[in-house]
Design goal:
β10 and β11 form a beta hairpin. α2 runs parallel beside α3 and α6 packs across α8. The relative contact order is 0.10. The chain has a five-stranded parallel β-sheet, sandwiched between helices. It is elongated, with a radius of gyration of 19 Å. The protein is of the alpha/beta class and 225 residues long. It folds into two domains: 121 residues, Response regulator (Rossmann fold, 3-Layer(aba) Sandwich); 95 residues, Arc Repressor Mutant, subunit A (Orthogonal Bundle), CATH 1.10.10. The chain is built from eight helices and eleven strands.
């Protein structure tokens, strides 16, 4: 799942990005409202986590602008303002849920899961399929020909990204930016190592190989159809 976190408190942002990554979520971070709005307009996210009080543009303004642009991604508002009228104002601005600070990460994660369940009937890609390989985004379950496949969070994010781009060549730069959150090449074989582990799990015991290495270009997942 791809998350946009718009939060100006860097300590809170670092904690949330790390915790969300450990639970298998790919998180982009914007530290002010203007940058957050740019990210929200330019990218496709599964959920937005928006702090109420932000520099340059406040959180409610960001949400209202996105809604005017018909971007209906679920929004969880974070705020230290806990009065009823403040929560109502946040929800009426286009937010889907409102969580007051301080909060437990387990509650934030549970609220995200609820938002995703509400959205599930309208999600075209709630289930990703390539041949007999299936990835269920809500439960993060992966199976092939009915056999469950256990993936660690990074492998899951890698497979999800490949399946969302099935039949397309995915470059190393695309993977570094969208799976590892690197905007530079660290000069290591981290992609090759994870790709090898992923291939062993989804292809090794099956007659048809789905994961392909496109020499000099990148990788592609396809059932050959």
């Amino acid at each position: 799942m791809r998350v946009l976190l718009i939060e100006d408190d860097l300590e809170t942002a670092r904690f949330l990005c790390k915790a969300l990554s450990e639970t298998g979520h790919n998180t982009d971070h914007a530290e002010d409202g203007e940058l957050g709005l740019q990210y929200g307009l330019a990218n496709d996210y599964d959920v937005l986590i928006v702090d109420r009080m932000l520099p340059k543009r406040d959180g409610l303004s960001v949400i209202e602008h996105l809604r005017k642009e018909e971007i209906n991604t679920p929004v969880l508002i974070l705020s230290a303002l806990d009065k009823v009228d403040e929560r109502v104002k946040g929800l009426r601005s286009g937010g889907d849920d409102y969580l007051t600070k301080p909060f437990a990460f387990s509650e934030l994660l549970a609220r995200i899961e609820v938002l995703m369940r509400r959205r599930a009937p309208d999600m075209e890609d709630a289930e990703l399929k390539v041949g007999d390989l299936t990835l269920e985004r809500m439960s993060q379950k992966v199976s092939r020909s009915g056999k469950n496949i256990q993936l660690v969070p990074r492998e899951y994010r890698l497979l999800e990204y490949l399946m969302r781009h099935k039949g397309q060549v995915v470059t190393r730069t695309m993977l570094l930016e969208n799976v590892w959150d690197y905007h530079f090449d660290p000069g290591t074989n981290v992609i090759d190592v994870h790709m090898s582990r992923l291939r062993a799990k989804i292809d090794k015991e099956f007659e048809q190989s789905l994961l392909q290495t496109i020499r000099g270009a990148g990788y592609m997942i396809s059932d050959g159809a």
